[in-house]
Prior knowledge:
mainly alpha, 72% helix, elongated
Amino acid sequence: xxxxxxxxxxxxxxxxxxxxxxxxxxxxxxxxxxxxxxxxxxxxxxxxxxxxxxxxxxxxxxxxxxxxxxxxxxxxxxxxxxxxxxxxxxxxxxxxxxxxxxxxxxxxxxxxxxxxxxxxxxxxxxxxxxxxxxxxxxxxxxxxxxxxxxxxxxxxxxxxxxxxxxxxxxxxxxxxxxxxxxxxx
Length: 185
């Protein structure tokens, strides 16, 4: 497998930041299956949904608009971004359903969370295997986005009451991160 050259030293940071979030929420969905206590499950779902909210808003507010502009400037197709935005809307609706359920004893609580997990995994697969690949193919310079995304990510995490990014990255294997900018090329 041939490795793609990086445009700048910081270019992979933007995609790697998103991929780290992907790995983290995938792990949270798997951890849910091991929980038996109703209150513990409810808190776990709340944390997972807040992680998804932060990630989705980061993509919608910063990443997608910048990528849409960059791809449009090259007369490239932006349908992948439109599809990702629709997927975010569906995930948001499932999260809202979970928020309104009275508790883990609701017969649809676990089912809704599992469907959300399946949906998120599908979204991650398409984003990493199709959108990220298109970004690399178009040689979009992502380095200007890195600082803005990092700052917005921190603000969103704080707003949603999530742990500091250092803890988040340590807990979910930032050092062992799969560098999506180097795989599947």
